[in-house]
Amino acid sequence: MGYFLIRRTVGFVLTLLAVSVVVFAVMNVLPGDPALTILGLDATEDALDALREQLGLNQPLLTRYFLWIWNAVQGDFGISHSFRVPVSTLIGERLPMTISLAVAGMFFTLIIALTLGIGAAARHRKFGDWGVMLISQLGIAIPAFWLSILLVMLFAVKLRWLPPGGFAGWSDPVAAMRSLILPTISLALVQSAVLARVTRSSALEVMRQDFVRTARASGLSRRRVLWRHVLPNALVPIVTIVGMQFAALVTGTIVIENVFYLPGLGRLIFQSIANRDLPTVQALVMLFAAIVVTANFIVDLLYVVIDPRLKARA
Amino acid sequence: MNRRLPTNLVIGAVLVALVVGVAALSLVWTPHDPTLMNIRGKFADPSEAHWLGTDQLGRDVVSQLMAAARNSMTVALVAVLLGGSIGVALGLFASAVGGWVEDGVMRLADLGFAFPALLFAIMLAAVFGPSLSNAVLAIAFINIPIFARVTRGSANQIWTLDYVSASRAAGMNKFVISRDHILPNIAAAIIVQATIEFAVAILAEAALSYLGLGAQPPASSWGRMLSEAQTLMYLAPQLAIYPGLCIITAVLGFGLLGDGLRDISDPRLSRQR
């Protein structure tokens, strides 16, 4: 176990470093003068020089890279050019929104997908099964942002039950929750379409095995066998997809925050692009990529918890 | 081979033929010029002249949807071809050379999975400004590791076959074997993957254009039509319906076609589904 942990952790750190090189390279090595990009073509030479100095553009690339990493590890992502505050402060303010969306989205994805997937497997080749498969096929093809628009048209414009977008802050928790209902549902419905299919096929695979028949024969109820015996044994492929989906969910929040005008990291990244605020974009892209890599790392560790047999092979 | 064709293959093929047909038709004919504005005729109801009415600038909706289909197909085709050929080349190379080179290439491919298309497009947009070509590049980029993995996995299986060993023993160059023997034998797997990635690319283009990182005005795009329609939900909700239906039709079509092709090329995989 110790060897496995060390190997995985080293791999994880190396991947993070490699990701940081890619982000830094795309944002800095590609042709173009960041100072000019930020200030625009009509900037004076003095202003450009001052900004180059502030961004450290006069130093060699390698020095800049290591300075960026060194500072980032200590939580310093530089100063946002457009907001004129440290990027870390901006991230701190907006992270709770994005995390709440992603976690709530994942929670509902799991509930919807496991219920539908196990339910479909239990009714294999019957009407309910076909229904779930049809819905999930459609769910995979629906863009999350279009589903959001449709939900807004129904629940905000037509029925007026929920706000169409925007966020007034956490001070009024009820209003805050109401603003997050539609975004969360949009995220969860699309993601659960994929997960429901995987759950179904994984559960079908397990249901064919002898111990399931034995469990049924020994008098356990159908429901108990499904949830206590089939599901735990069907978890490995499900967890793989959940890990990939958490990554999709986090980038999904970028889209959804922009659909619903929610003040999270995804909205910040687009404001920063519009403001040509390169240090902020660089920090945020790195943060999102790091979240994706971390999710995969956690899945790798979870495998061993779920299925100890994998430890030997790892 | 007297089996019935799988249902998903048939439905997928019909939907794909519909979308590709409309896209091809738009090259030579649309009911109106999709970019032609007519402010006085804005928000027109469906009529004989405008089958689905007009938008906030009086542009014909059907013509725009058709032009958008063409743009969407072009983006997906270029992105999948570009990313796919690089990925296939990398996968073949890794599989042929083996050893630490293979490990290295596959590690690099793993790295690509850390960057969803959206993140890559965001980086390119921040440096170069948003454009359709940046969106194509971003979508192509995420296809590289996917195709590298599929190609290397399938190629490794072929390398173990007797006739490949025979070619090796006869002194054939590894890269010539890759081209003449490996590639034709894994073509089916690659085509299946390409069809599925085509669906993913259509979805990605729509999302990027919706967010303003893809097609720029006046180019027509389903994603951009939706972002414009979103601001007009109270006035003209129907404008937010049609482009979404087009996206679903295209994505569903290529997705089902890909699933169906996989079912006939490798029946073992389909039994569970």
Can you walk through the features of this model?
The complex is a heterodimer of chains A (314) and B (273). Chain A has 314 residues and is mainly α. Chain A folds into two domains: 2-73, no CATH class; 95-307, MetI-like fold (Orthogonal Bundle), CATH 1.10.3720. Chain A has helices at 2-28, 34-39, 45-55, 61-73, 87-122, 127-141, 144-158, 173-207, 210-217, 222-233, 235-260, 265-274, 278-306, 309-313. In chain A, helix 7 packs across helix 11 and helix 11 (235-260) crosses helix 12 (265-274). Chain A starts with a helix and ends with a helix. The model of chain A has no long low-confidence stretch (mean pLDDT 86). With 273 residues, chain B is mainly alpha-helical. Chain B has a single domain (7-20, 55-272), classed as Orthogonal Bundle (MetI-like fold). Helix content of chain B is 71%, strand content 0%. Chain B contains ten helices and no strands. Chain B has helices at 7-28, 61-97, 99-112, 117-128, 132-159, 162-169, 174-210, 222-230, 242-265, 267-270. Chain B is elongated and about 75 Å long. Chain B starts with 6 loop residues before the first helix and ends with a helix. Classes of the chains: A mainly alpha (314), B mainly alpha (273).
- The CATH homologous superfamily of chain B corresponds to MetI-like
At CATH level 2, the architecture of the largest domain in chain A is Orthogonal Bundle
Portion of residues in helices of chain A?
over 70%
Assign an overall shape of chain A: globular
Mean pLDDT of chain A comes to 86
Q: How can the largest sheet of chain B be summarized?
A: none
The CATH top-level class label of chain B: Mainly Alpha
Residues in β-strands, percent of chain B: under 5%
Rg of chain A computed from alpha carbons, rounded to a whole number of angstroms: 24 Å
Helix/strand order of chain A: HHHHHHHHHHHHHH
C-alpha termini separation of chain B? 21 Å
Strand residue percentage of chain A = under 5%
Number of continuous helical runs of chain B? 10
Number of strands of chain A: 0
